[in-house]
Write a structure and sequence with these properties.
This protein has about 350 residues and is α+β, with helices and mostly antiparallel strands. It has 15 helices and 7 strands. It has one domain: Endonuclease III, domain 1 (Orthogonal Bundle), CATH 1.10.340.30. About 35% of the residues lie in helices and about 10% in strands. The strands form 2 sheets. It has a 5-stranded antiparallel β-sheet. Strands 6-7 form a two-stranded antiparallel sheet. α4 crosses α15 and α13 packs across α14. This is 3-methyladenine DNA glycosylase.
């Protein structure tokens, strides 16, 4: 679990990343024909949505559960509204879909538009943590137990979709969150398509590009978005085998991670960040993050300089539920003062 979900004194944080890339980095040729940008959808009356309800068997906090799917405050695929509703624009195996979900008297009420409306509504319980097993978790530390009592509605999301979590995770390798969020926002707005149905006022939501569109993003557009050749090449390699990677959503988390890590440029950090969302992986603790080991070490042992090995040692009592334990630690707000300097924003022209 990335440490960006911890309360922090500043918005710009440093992300972890995979330390090695296997294979050669390839980018779109400068003389390649650019893919046409999606046209703005003409104004038309909103189609009647498809509707579904689901009553969770235990308390559910919608914001905590779906929050990890949001990639920054201006993510064009994710919005929240003052009435507590969460909106998602997503690409399902059956086509684009827009989902609106809200809790009303303990029941999740969902509306969906687009070709993928039935697909996403059929999986609404899974998305909201129906397959999560918080009862399997036993707090071993007072801080963790206290946070668990304060956050009874935390469930681990499971989208059943790999690329929509994998691509932004690749963008977050070795850069600040602000840089990664900006890249995701620009690329989705430029090459994605307008979300079907209505969207919140002034939100301009977009669905992530399909694999064919990602493959034809010109090299200069990656550069304009601040994405270096290594990350762009990793995304291009991933979308070329998109169907095989999407199969990982139905695999046990460890097998899913192994499948993802067959792609050069995808390592343990990125695979963990992905399956936490796509597979609801309760044990996929993130290693390689700059701040998470120190946060876990400080929360559980009062140690400010813990590394990955020490973090895994401290989380060992939570084997099988280490990701949930890390989420609760981050939500506790019990974090050490920052001592490491912030990573400077990357000038990809120097790479």
């Amino acid at each position: 679990m990335s440490s960006r979900f911890a309360p922090r004194p500043t918005r710009t944080t440093v992300r972890g990343g995979d330390t090695t890339l296997r294979g050669g980095a390839t980018t779109q040729r400068a003389d390649a024909t650019p893919v046409p940008r999606p046209a703005t959808a003409p104004h038309r009356p909103a189609a009647t949505p498809k509707h579904r309800t689901w009553t969770p068997p235990a308390p559910l906090d919608l914001a905590l559960t779906l929050g990890p799917l949001r990639r920054g405050p201006a993510d064009p695929t994710f919005r929240t509204t003052p009435d507590g509703s969460v909106w998602r624009a997503t690409r399902t195996p059956e086509g684009p879909a827009t989902l609106r979900v809200a809790l009303r008297a303990g029941t999740a009420e969902a509306d969906a538009w687009g070709q993928g409306a039935d697909w996403i509504l059929d999986r609404l319980p899974r998305l909201l943590g129906a397959e999560d097993s918080p009862a399997d978790f036993t707090a071993r530390h007072r801080l963790v137990a206290h946070t668990e009592r304060r956050r009874p509605g935390l469930r681990l999301v499971r989208t059943g979709l790999v690329l929509e979590s994998l691509i932004p995770s690749i963008l977050e390798q070795k850069v600040t969150t602000d840089e990664a969020y900006r890249a995701w926002r620009l690329l989705v707005r430029t090459y994605g398509e307008p979300a079907p149905g209505p969207t919140p006022a002034q939100a301009r939501m977009h669905v992530m590009p399909d694999p064919a569109t990602w493959r034809h993003v010109p090299s200069w557009e990656w550069h304009k978005a601040g994405v270096d050749n290594k990350r762009a090449a990793t995304i291009l390699r991933a979308v070329r085998v998109a169907e095989r990677l999407e199969e990982a959503a139905a695999m046990p988390p460890e097998e899913a991670r192994a499948r993802l890590e067959l792609v050069p440029g995808i390592g343990p950090w990125t695979s963990a960040e992905t399956v936490q969302r796509s597979n609801g992986a309760a044990d996929a603790v993130t290693v390689g993050d700059l701040h998470l080991p120190g946060i876990v070490g400080y929360a559980l042992a009062g140690e400010r300089e813990a590394d990955d090995a020490r973090m895994l040692e401290l989380l060992a009592p939570y084997q099988g539920q280490r990701h949930r334990a890390a989420r609760l630690i981050l939500l506790s707000g019990h974090t050490p003062a920052r001592r490491k300097p912030k990573m400077p924003k990357t000038d990809i022209g120097l790479l």
